[in-house]
Amino acid sequence: MDTTTTATVVLKKSQRAVQIECPASISAMCSLTQIQQFPPLVSWLQSLDHQMATATDSNSISISKLSIQGVDAFKSGKIGFLKFSTDAYHYDNNNNRKKSIPGIVFLRGSSVAVLVILRTTKSAKVLSSSHLDSDYMVMVEQPRVAVPSFALQELPAGMTDGDDAVGVSTAVREMLEETGITVTPGDLISLSEHPLYPSPGACDESVALYACEKHVSADEIESIRGRLGGLSDEHITVRLVRVCDVWKQATDLKALAALYLWDRHNNNNNQN
To answer: What domain of life is recorded for the organism (predicted)?
Structure first.
């Protein structure tokens, strides 16, 4: 019979107590202390604390227990992903109602994605929001087992480091690792004031979107097209998709959202 290790965390603002339960089969591989120090869990509990402390009587959520269901670690030993269930309830004190709500959570933390538009000499003097046949978006093609797809095209992206709160240094690193294209922090434009949530029904992942534009020659376009990238355990091929075709070809929501926000950013600047 699997025994359970428990710990209680008292949230600072709301003063609510949250019990964390972890089966011995999991804590034997990854201690409960290590799990509690996992940055995405720390951030999640802080957000929960804020929500509980500022909730109104007509709209509040109660969570007093987390049950750890799975932990996945990287080769380095650091936790990469955490899955748990909660005893989540929605309260409406005005109507004296209490209702159970979905409480399965998959934690992986914050990430960043980069939209890079390559423009040739042909489009150099055209407004940035134009979608000419000679304009390309940089995509990376790689196998994604979760979908599953053996050749999914998406924006260059990656999980942020714990000390990279806004994701800029991660964006610079991922672009170089995955595509071989060098960008600097000064090249990047933030596309939204707040991170975006691709799947908030079950996952905490937030995505910060950045964009930059580069003017390149036809020879440079051909040197980038089909380039191999990624780390030793990744299998990445760089693909160039005509910007005017992205809306009907892309299955990556990050790419579609980034292109829309990039257009809005440029249109707003042109109007000003």
So the answer is: Eukaryota
